[in-house]
Amino acid sequence: MVVMATTGSPAAASGRRARDLPVPAGFDMRDHVSGIGAHLAGPANVIMQLSWPGVGYGVMNSRVHDGAAMRRPFKRGRTTFTYLAVALLGTDEDRAAFRREVNRQHAQVVSQPGEEVEYRAMDPRLQTWVAACLYYGTVDMIERMHGPLPGAEADALYAHCARFGTTLQMPAEAWPADRAAFRRYWADAEAEVDIDPAVASYLMELTRLRNFPPPFRLLGPFVVFVTTGFLPPLFREAMGLPWTARQQRRFDRLLRAAGAVERRLPRFLRTFPFNLWLADMRLRRRLGRRLV
Fold first, then answer.
1. Superkingdom, according to UniProt (predicted)?
2. Global pTM exceeds 0.90
3. CA distance 106 to 165
4. How far does CA 66 lie from the centroid of its chain?
């Protein structure tokens, strides 16, 4: 069940600083969670996130090997989907528990003396950028598959998606005040996009599924096509990925078809596998097992 923050939240009543932004009562994030869309758009979002050097080098050079995408892709996928499920659909207790586990890992991700790029996974500024990419990708996926959201619904979704960052170290006040402020933030943040050849090569290895066993790599060309379609032009050009008008038409038809299929599914299938990974995380908590 989605926990909806309101101006009458316990934090506000006690005078404590609210971790999350208030979300209008009645908004249900489950109406906007798409398992199909997340699988299609996910690789492009990873490229967007890692386009800032501090994020790109932090992920590429991370010494937390048990969760590295190149070494343990299935575990990395589970952890990523679980984080998104907890951030969007979890309770305050779910998010606090997962935050503690992620912090334990992130504390180890810090640049060493002499490295070309400085980074620190606990940096709220980098986390704000990652959250911004996740929100941008969420809205882009929804609109491509189902069309634009009504204004009030779009505003509520925007406030709720601050949890992409506040579930970790991003303070609520770091999230741009509204969607217009977000557009200004995004325009400024694009100036820091800088994908050098080393990061680009690493990202293409992931996009082509080279970190997965050979049978999965057969999907590589399709993943590259869909990923290129989801990337905004700036990121596409930074990766050196060509794109034609014909490819755009094929991409648009694919997403319209995916949206038509999704609208006919019951909610528990539309939100799969997010609902699965949220249930898995809660079971792990009860059994005292590691969450990450």
1. Bacteria
2. yes
3. 14
4. 20
